[in-house]
Structures are given as C-alpha cells and as structure tokens.
Amino acid sequence: MNEIAFRDESEAVTLSGIENFFMQGKAPQLNRARAGRRKGKNLPHQADANLCEEYEDDDAENEDTSEQFSHCDLGLLRDFFNSDELIKKNQKQIDSIRVDFPWWTYCLAGGFNVLLYGVGSKRDLVSAFRDEQLSKFRTLVIDGFREDVTSRAILVNIVECMLLKNCEQKRRSLVDWAKHIACTIEEKKLQLIILLDNIDSPNLRDPVDQAVLAALAANPAVLMLATVDHINATLLWTNVLLESFNWVYCRADTYIFPADELLAGQSSLLGLNPKSSHSAHSLSSLDVLWQSLATNSRSIFRLFYALFFTNNEPVAFWDLFNAAKDDFLVSSDTALRQQLVEFSDHRILRWKRGEDGNEQLVGSLDRPLVEKFLAEKGLNLELI
Q1: Where does the Origin recognition complex subunit 2 winged-helix domain start and stop, copy by copy (predicted)?
Q2: 3-state DSSP call for residue 171?
Q3: Residue 352's pLDDT band (boundaries 50, 70, 90)?
C-alpha cells in the first residue's frame, strides 16, 4: 500500500518564519507580486495565510518609510547628529566597548581574525583600537564603503605599503596574487594587520573579492580585523571561506550614525539610488561590464566620456557618430545606436532631446570614477 506523507503543520510554521526572515531584504514589488499570486489560491495552512498578511503589512510599511525619507529635513538631521549631547553619548558608548580591546588584541595574537558586528558605525571604534593597541605594529586601514575600494586596489596598496619587490600580478588571478603577496610577507618575516571597515560593502560582495580577502587572512603573517553592518553579511561566506577567515565574532553596538558611510554609498535617506545617483556604478561593476564589451565598444565608451568631460555638456549623437566613424569604430549610425542602447541599459549614459530637437547623450558617471577606471586599463580621457 502506498503511503501518503502529510506535511507537519509545525514544520510549515517554521519554514514560513524562515522564509519571511530571508524575504526582509527583497524589493516591495516582489512582496506584492507574491501576495497577489497567493490571494487567488486556496491556502492549505493557516501559516501561509499569516505569511501573506505579513507581506501586505511589509508593503504598507515600506511605502510609509519611503514617504518619510522623501520629506526628511537633512538640515535638522545634521544638527541633531552634531549636537554635544549626542556626541557625548556616543563617546560614552565607545568607552564601554574599549574594555574589550585587550581581548581583541589577544585574539589577533593567537592567530585569529576579529569580526565586529552590531548596530551603528564602527569606524571611530576601529580607529581608537588601532591607536591604543596597534601603534607599534604595521597596519593598513581600509574604508570598504568607498566606491574606489576593490580587491585589486587593496592588493596594490599592500604591495606599496609593505615595499614588496617582485610581487606584480603578471598573469596571476587575483586570488593567486593575494596568496603570493601573503607568502612573500611571511617569507620576509613581516607582519601586517588589516583593519577593514565594511567588509560587506557592495564593492566587496563579489565571491572573487571575498576569496581574495580570505586568501590574505588565511596566512598567519596577515591578520585582519573587519566590521560588518548588513544583517545577512554571513551569507557572503562559504564554509571554505569561513575556515580561511577563522573569525572570532565580537559584538560592538556603538549606535553611532554612519554619516561617512551614507555619503560614500547609496542611501534612500539622502536620495541616492541607482536611478538618480551618479554613484550607481563602482570600479568593480564597471569592470564586469568592460569584460563583456568588444574592443570597439570599449573605445566608444572612452570616446564618449572624453567628449562629454571636455565641456561637461551633453554630446550630440551625430557629433559622437562622426568622431567614432573617423576612428573606424562604427560604419553606420544604426550600429552606434545599438551600442548606446546597451550603455543606457547599464546606466552608463542617458538620452535626452536638445532645444533644437536633436538627440543628445548625457554621462551618468562621475569624472573621478571614469578616470580611475580607465587608468586601471592603461587609458585616459585625452582626445587624440
């Protein structure tokens, strides 16, 4: 006789709770779509019905939050966070965490790496730890939330900081290069302590970037103290990476407003988002796009921004076409349009109509970011 397996209702409640937890970071549109699909179906369990109600509540809450952020008075917010009362309160909170400094040092001395987690910015806390406990050691401080911080930039900085010779990347992968750098430091009997704020920043969330950092931290000659802010930051690491990092988890609730992190990254509170902000791209995201482009497309990218930054004014489509045709990059305006549509889809540029009705192109990237990116590729913005 065939056995019929019934789903345990207590298991359904547990699974629904777990699913709800991991759906917290999803876009409200996805929640609305899922709730809409479930409305027309017969729900087998009350737990699923409760889950749909939770999704609908989340949608309303997200809409209310967005509305509040859009009307936020940044002037009053600045004055509040600069008030003497709050500064004293934050300093008092940091002082209460200072008692753990010797323990952090002890963990580093034992060959472990320290991971700080908790509510609030931990940048000042890490700086205080460095001044108090690591003043006699060679340290490298990295602000991971900055858009120009990539795994490759970190490796280049280490080579320059440690004055390492014969440590060029050559044809090595980034992970192999990181291992080579760490081994060189160990062979020279040197020690480096990396203080990395926001190891979970968007620029470093790629598996390759985390593998590079893990390759460094796995060597006893390179120690690391890092901070995380995202609630699901641990999902970045596989068991293999966790074994390489060898973390000791330390809670550090500073409750300090992350002003520097907000200004350097994307924040709905400040109106910075992928649709309206020039910070939508980073060096790592541009590199991913660059790898997918053909040689002529890369040249068109450089040519457009060379023209755009010459006068910081929109570039007429036909001016770009004539320049690209002179450089033998395109043979027809149709081919150029196809490439520009791809750039537009990736928020590299946007189209607009000029006062004369002709098509114009406006760059969506900041000049410092483009210059740094092209410099990594051995290029510049000079018109030939």
Answers
A1: 315-361
A2: coil
A3: confident
